[in-house]
TrEMBL record:
One of its GO terms (biological process) is silent mating-type cassette heterochromatin formation. PANTHER family: CRYPTIC LOCI REGULATOR 2. One of its GO terms (cellular component) is SHREC complex. Transmembrane segments: none annotated. This is Cryptic loci regulator 2 N-terminal domain-containing protein. It comes from Orbilia javanica.
Amino acid sequence: MDKEPIFSAGGAIAYIARKSRHVITLQLPSLETSSDGFPTNIRDPQKSLKPGEKVEWYVRNDTAAVNGYRVKLGDLIAEQLGFRGTEDWMLRDLPPGYVLFTSQRGLVDDKGNLVIERQDSYLYGHKSGARYRSTKEFLPHIVGLILQNTDSLR
């Protein structure tokens, strides 16, 4: 029986940021991932904020950040594996067990409005508890997982 392919770039097309993108689907074997290193100070949307209060928290799976990550990573994987021509690519999903958290730092102004001064995204899920600060930092890891299964690459 043939193994399920871990990668396919069939006819699926997504429309993101005013561009049509070919969708990369990764069907990786069961990955050893860990949530041990996940941030614990998650934003509580029910919490009242007071003027002058400083905030520092994480937002899990912010849609815009996840979509941006999937687009960047899709293009990088396509380029790394040599099938990027003029097409644009994106991942269908983040690999199983990996979660994108967005760190937000800021303060509440005098009128009670939240002002985010800095925002950074980090990908968590590696079995060591380490986090990835960018798609380029994560690329060698994900390409390594794909290439470990080159017989099921299509």
